[in-house]
UniProtKB/TrEMBL annotation:
A biological-process GO annotation: cell surface receptor protein tyrosine kinase signaling pathway
Gene: flt4_4
Residues holding ATP: 337
GO MF: ATP binding; transmembrane receptor protein tyrosine kinase activity
Topology in membrane: Single-pass membrane protein
Subcellular location(s) per record: Membrane
Protein name, as recorded: Vascular endothelial growth factor receptor 3
Keywords noted in UniProt: ATP-binding, Disulfide bond, Glycoprotein, Membrane, Nucleotide-binding, Receptor, Transmembrane, Transmembrane helix
CDD domains per UniProt: Ig
Lineage: Eukaryota, Metazoa, Ecdysozoa, Arthropoda, Crustacea
Residues covered by the Protein kinase domain: 303-410
Cellular-component GO terms for this entry: plasma membrane; receptor complex
């Protein structure tokens, strides 16, 4: 295994140039930790204070209750911090990230003002051509690429607003190498029911607009009222919490700005194809070809764990109560099978194969039948299989207890 240790990288999300005073808003800090030895990095954030007439400002630590560290989509060492603010004056925001090896810093100045209407026009379109003029006062400034421009807007005799910017070349959208789509098309193979994501990282100037299509249709129809699929990172990531057959298809990432457009794509293949089963082999030998039936999925909130009933080589069985099983309002007693706490990938894979085989076999009077499964946290090693609870124990012990009454008719 290749382990990369280095300075963590931290970068703030896009922040408005002017923030309103005494209003709630959030800022996201994206972190790449570059260390797999720590479960998560340590993050400390500060705001400048007591700067009025003092050349050296004081840094005040932000309470941990004002921000939340969570796992971000993508590599295992990628995190994000959502900071919650309500400011009354402009200030400097500083954040320090420690991964157990080195520190990484990020800083930005937050301009807080309610003086918007008198001197400022707010434009919310990213790709439109905008011409800002006041009748009788329009003036054209001729600039070339690379020019530095300073603009000052004065109100009355004492208030002014000063802007500096650099005129830059317009750039057509370009696909970044960290994407798993391409202009020629890529193939993404996913084993059911594991989660997966499609990444379309791009750059351009003006900032490109991203629209996702599946088999030529807008992705909004799939995302609407569906907790399993979501967009994130400025629509650059399409995230799936599980892989089922209906998510298979061609996904196109339509990227455009005023300069140009590109349409990289990927073909998603969900591996779990009953049609490819070889009748000469056992089901156990080719269980990976069996699909996961999402109709067996049970939400974690509907499962209440009870005492342990038993344990085996790689798993353990608990008594559990499940609400809403098979349309019943009252809780159903089930036996819940899971990996032991010290699970590894081999044990998890064995449990996945067992689940797929039970789905394939279906219900039968003479076997312990599958009732449901919880797979939402399978990426964390958590897979729960719900089967019928046998209140009289296993068959072997039942026969042994009735040994004295056994009648041999052979």
């Amino acid at each position: 295994m290749l382990v990369v240790n280095g300075t963590p990288k931290a970068q703030f999300s896009e922040i408005p140039s002017v923030l309103p005073p005494d209003k709630n808003f959030t800022i996201t800090l994206f972190i790449l930790a570059f260390d797999l030895n720590k479960s998560e990095p340590d993050v400390s954030c500060y705001l400048e204070s007591n700067c009025s007439g003092i050349p050296i400002c004081k840094l005040e630590s932000i309470s941990s209750e004002s921000y939340k560290l969570e796992k971000d989509i993508g590599p295992p060492n990628r995190f994000k911090v959502v900071l919650f603010f309500r400011l009354s004056s402009s200030t400097l925001l500083l954040c320090r990230v420690n991964n157990g090896i080195e520190n990484g810093d990020a800083g930005t100045y937050l301009t807080v003002s309610n003086q918007l209407a008198s001197f400022m026009v707010m434009i919310r379109s990213e790709n439109a051509l905008v011409n800002l003029t006041t009748p009788g006062t329009s003036e054209i400034i001729n600039v070339t690429e690379g020019d530095n421009i300073n603009i000052a807007c004065f109100a009355l005799d004492y208030f002014y607003y000063y802007v500096s910017f650099n005129y830059s070349e317009k750039i057509a959208p370009r696909l970044l190498s960290s994407s798993n789509v391409s202009l020629e098309g890529t193939e993404i193979r996913v084993k059911s029911p594991f989660p997966f994501f499609i990444a379309c990282y791009v750059e351009g100037r003006p900032k490109p607009k991203i629209t996702w299509l599946k088999d030529g249709e807008n992705i909004d129809e799939i995302i609407e009222n569906n907790d399993e699929v979501s967009l994130s990172d400025d629509n650059q990531i399409l995230d799936f919490k599980s892989s089922i057959k209906k998510y298979e298809g061609k996904y196109k990432c339509k990227v455009e700005n005023r300069v140009g457009h590109i349409q990289p794509f990927a073909n998603v293949i969900i591996e779990g194809n009953v049609g490819k089963l070889n009748k000469e082999c056992t089901i156990e030998e080719q269980a990976e070809l069996l699909p996961y039936d999402n109709s067996f999925e049970v939400e974690r909130a509907n499962i209440t764990l009870g005492k342990q009933l038993g344990a085996g080589a790689f798993g353990r069985v608990l008594l559990a109560q499940v609400k809403g099983l098979n349309g019943k309002e009252s809780p159903t007693r089930v036996a819940l099978k899971m990996c032991k706490f010290e699970y590894d990938k081999t044990h998890l894979r064995a449990l996945i194969m067992e689940l797929k085989i039970m789905i394939h076999l279906g219900k039968h009077l003479n076997i312990v039948n599958l009732l449901g499964a919880h797979t939402s946290n399978i990426d964390k090693g958590e897979l729960w299989i719900l089967v019928e609870y046998c209140k009289y124990g296993n068959l072997l012990k039942f026969i042994q207890r009735g040994k004295a009454q056994f009648i041999n008719q052979m």
